[in-house]
Amino acid sequence: MSIDSAYDVVLSGVLLVLAAAILLGLYRIFTASSAAERAVVGDLVYFAGIGILMIVGIQSGSAVIQDAAMLAAFLGILATVALARILTRGER
């Protein structure tokens, strides 16, 4: 087994794990009892999607996809902080 094929197998495995995380997260969003749980699982789904986007960018060698994923991750972090402030009503 060459290095390149082992690399592709690992990336494919990571894609499967991230896809499973998204599916389980979507199920949990629909069954969660509070808004805070939905927010946390929503972040999981969002960042797992960004992980998939990054892996696709790595496999295709596209710098544009990787840059878009990094920008989306930055915006996701800002959205997470904003939502945390809303849920805690601005308390620290």
Q: What this model shows, in words?
A:
- This protein is mostly helical and 92 residues long.
- The chain has one domain.
- It is built from three helices and no strands.
- Helix 2 runs antiparallel to helix 3 (63-87).
Q: Beta-strand percentage?
A: under 5%
Structural class: mainly alpha
Mean pLDDT: 89
Described by the principal axes of the CA atoms, the overall outline is elongated
| Radius of gyration over all CA atoms, rounded | 16 Å
Low-confidence stretches: none
How far apart the termini lie comes to 53 Å
Task: Please describe the structure with a list of short key phrases separated by commas or semicolons.
elongated; 92 residues; 3 helices; mainly alpha
Write the layout of secondary structure elements.
Layout: H1 3-31, H2 35-60, H3 63-87
Helix pairs in contact: 1-2, 2-3
Summarize the structure.
The chain is an all-alpha fold.
